[in-house]
Amino acid sequence: MNTVTNISVQKIWSILGEVCDPEVPVLSVIDLGIIREVKVTTANEAALVEVVITPTYSGCPAMDVIRMNIRMELLQHDYKNVQITTVLSPAWTTDWMTEAGKEKLKAYGIAPPNIKQQVCNTHLFAEDEAVQCPHCNSYNTRRISEFGSTACKSLHQCNDCQEPFDYFKCH
Amino acid sequence: MTKDILYNYTMHLADNALILAQRNSEWCGHGPVLEQDIAITNISLDLIGQARSLYQYAAELINAPSPSIGGGRGEATEDSLAYLRDVRQYKNCLLVEQPNGDWAQTILRQFFFSTYQYLLYQQLQKSTDDTLAAIAEKSLKEVTYHVRWSSEWVVRLGDGTPESHGRLENALEELWMYTGELFAPATYEAEAVTAGFGVEVSALKAAWEQKVNEIFGEATLPDAAAGGREGIYMQTGGKEGVHSEQLGYILAELQYMQRAYPGAEW
């Protein structure tokens, strides 16, 4: 039986590394930066694993699935007493994505967020700096649409290799 | 007492987001071009997300013991609040329930409302109520993107062709009378300010008008309140549950499944 003393927070983190984002399946929930905290406490003399998560966007339809997948993955490792808590503040930013995650994204054909965090402002016709084509590495790209296939992405096209691609937009 | 005010205030914010999201979603599959069809429905998705956070909070409030809020349907959930209330219980402002009209009218409605929401959430993220503050902080990042997108479209249409300019002017005629309500506090908004967690909406008006006129200038439109619109009678009532005839039709579509098949899930 799992007790507070023999549950390792580190072990929980490594299990969470196996839970993927259903919409971008190359990314784990840790790569995405949506796991904020893992806590192990005691509730009614049983060990309780609490996972604190935050959504990328308020309306992200993947969040319900992610919550369920976290529960299932932990259950498979015999952690039955699990609580998943959602927090909204501080709000998620692309800056929380891991470097490993950014590399996986690029290999998958999605342009990762710029290393320099792009913050959305209300300036007319402003665009993110230096969006790099994930296929040919050119910076000679243009935005086709401010919105894309999921809430967190916009649609771009490379002027050199002509390939269209998704990009994790400023947030 | 404070909890009743907090509940009403939260429901008002939630209803605004849900009804505008529902309106925008009517464009799904009908947008002028594919990219903008995706844009307007993505904005719907952001708004539905914001509405969900707010309804979840309101459900928590209503489920906690409190004799005065009422409810009468047992355990409230985000779904029961969205699907099982009738017109008079909805507290959204009149602007968000107005018909989509053409693309210009949809754009102008979004621009007016996003600009308002941007100013509102900037203040609300400093609310003494931690949950409202967190929802506002989270939503503000999304709303900023909506303000930029809708501003650009106002400029594009106003400074575009005589046809697009004319359509935007028509949209302004249609919608201007519903903008006053945004800054006229409902009873629970005034009480929320007194209680310390609400935002004084009347204080947002000057900044809103300045932003609107700045974008209108870029769009070669006259000042919003000029051109025969000075002192025009502003429609109010939505925030107190007195709606235009539009809301009933919206709810009929929104709630049809839950009314016909109570508890249906997929």
UniProtKB/TrEMBL annotation, chain B:
Instruction: List the GO biological process terms.
Output: phenylacetate catabolic process
GO CC annotation: what is one?
A: cytosol
Q: Which Gene3D superfamilies match?
A: 1.20.1260.10
Q: Which SUPFAM superfamilies match?
A: Ferritin-like
Transmembrane residue ranges: none
Q: Which InterPro entries match?
A: Aromatic_CoA_ox/epox, Ferritin-like, Ferritin-like_SF, PaaA_PaaC, PaaC
This protein's name: Phenylacetate-CoA oxygenase subunit PaaI
